[in-house]
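Task card 7
Instruction: Convert sequence to structure tokens.
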Amino acid sequence: MNDPSGQEQLLNLGARTVPVLAKNGQYIFCQSLEDVAEFVGLQGTGHTPLPPAELIAKWTTVLRAAQRYIRQIPDGRLVERAIDNRDRSIRLLGHHIFRIGEAFLEVAVDGVEYWAQLANVPPQDGTFTTGEEIAGYGKRVIERLEHWWRRLEDKSCQQKVKTFYGTPPMHQLLERSTWHSAQHTRQMIAVLERFDIKPDGQLTFDDLAGLPLPEGLWD
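Output:
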């Protein structure tokens, strides 16, 4: 994003999406921390993923927090950028938090292959233009996630899923989706604070404990 030559380097590798880690002309998609550790020669990451039941509980906690936060944003400001150096509006950021859950369900329930931009499918023009509408979308996604979890027979989530970077166990995609929504919800908190709006029910350390979140807020 901040390196003008970055896109050229990416294309020269043959990659079309990020994050990517490269060395000696080879690269991997950085979707799995274990794959990254192996690529750089480490013996594992030292990270133990939370059990699926805990991930679902944390994910729904995060999504409900995101509902509260998007409702606090004045509708007239949803078109503003969430961060100056990225062309993504607050509206799209809010929608994306819940779209991550919808994309996961498309993979877990419908057998869709998880491709790089699946969680980035934007809303149609003229839709989800208010915080209440985006929060309503979030409500539907949360209800579908909870319904899926209740009906899931094998809650170990070791079932293989199809992705653009291989066929990992569903547990891995579940963890990634959980922290992905959590990271963007942290960003929504930062937007509220920039607007001098106190977040309604701040996420706590315990709410996010055990998730492999980036240290940087906008990473």
